[in-house]
What we know:
Blueprint: E1 35-40, E2 44-49, E3 58-62, E4 66-67, H1 76-88, H2 92-99, H3 113-121, E5 123-124, E6 132-134, E7 142-143, E8 149-154, E9 159-164, E10 173-176, H4 184-195, H5 208-228, H6 231-236, H7 238-254, H8 260-275, H9 279-297, H10 302-312, H11 339-347
Parallel strand pairs: 7-10
Antiparallel strand pairs: 1-2, 2-10, 3-9, 4-6, 5-6, 8-9
Amino acid sequence: MAAAVAPRVEPRTTVGGSHLKITINTSQTPDKSLCAVQEIPGKGLGLVARQAIAAGTIILKESPLITTASITSLSPTRTEFELSAALAALPPEKREAYHSLHNNHAETDPAHPLAGIVRSNLYPLGVNASIGGIFQTISRINHSCRPNAVQYWNTIHSCETIYCVSPIQVGQEITVSYHFGGPSTTRQRVLQENFGFQCRCELCLLPAPQLAISDKRLQRAQELDYLIGDPERCTNEPSIVMAACAELFEIFELEQIRDGRLSRLFYDAFQLCNMHGDLARAKTFAEYFCEAKTIAEGPDSTSVIEMSAVSQNPQSHLSFGVSVKWRSRLTDQPKGLSQHEFQRWLWTRHLHL
C-alpha cells in the first residue's frame, strides 16, 4: 500500500517539552534601528545588526522594486528592454536603488546589466514560485552556509520578510542561505556556478579538521533526508525512518541548523507518526513545526496557520491512517518529564515497539 504522504515543505518557545529553548519576539513590525547597510570586508555591501536581535524577531519587511512578471521573453536583448521599461515606471530613487545593486555577471555579460542585476539578486516570491522580486534592502543581504536569518514571502501581506533564527550580536552581519546545504565541496561548487563567488563564511572557513567533521555530518544529513523522504520506507519500515529522523535532528543541533531544514524535519516526523496512528507524537511534532515556522516566518505564516489547526486534530491531515502500528491517543503525551526525558520519549519511538 502506498503511503499517503503530503508534499514535504521547506527546511522558540519552550512549551510541551519542546527542545526549542529560546524566547521569541512575536512583534510583526520591524524596528528600523535594528540594522544598517554597510561595507563588509571582502563582500561589498551587506546588512549589519545595530543592536542585539533575538530569534523570532522580524528584521525587515519589504515590497519588491520590480518583479519578473514583466519579463515575457527568454531573449537576453528582449529581457533587457522589458526590464528597462519596468524601471522607467519607478520613481527616480527606486531606479537608483536598483542600479546600485551588485551585478555578479558584469564581466561575463556586460551587454545586459539590468538582467545581470536580476540574476544576482532575485528572490522567489514564495515556495516554488515562477516569479521573483528585486528588493532595495533585502537584496543586500549576503550568504552564509550557517545563516542567522531566513527570507520568507508573506502571501497575506504580499511582502518579503527577514526573520532572525539564531541570536545576532551587535555588529554581526545578518545573513541568509542561498541554498540548502551539503558538504563544503558541494556548497562551493553550487555558489560558484550560480552566483559567481567562493564562499568564505564562518562554516567554510573552519580549520581543516573541523571542516572535515562538519562535511561528514552534512553528507550524512543528505543521506538521511533522502531516506526520510522515501514514501515506501515510511510505510513499510517506519522504525528505520524514525531512527533516521532522530539522527538528523542530532546533526542539526550540532551544525546549528535553524532554517527550513529544521521545520521540514519536524513535518516529516509528524507525518510518519501520524501515518501509523501515533497521535501523541504527531501532535508534538506538529507543534514543533509551528514553533520553528513562527520563528522563521511569523505567526501569520500560512504554514503556521494551517498546521496549528492540524496539531489539535492530526486525524484531519491526509497522512493519517496508513496503519495503527504505533497507535496512541492525543492525551498520551507524558506529563511531568524533564526536557531530556521528554526528548528521549519523543525521538526514540522506534525503540518502544
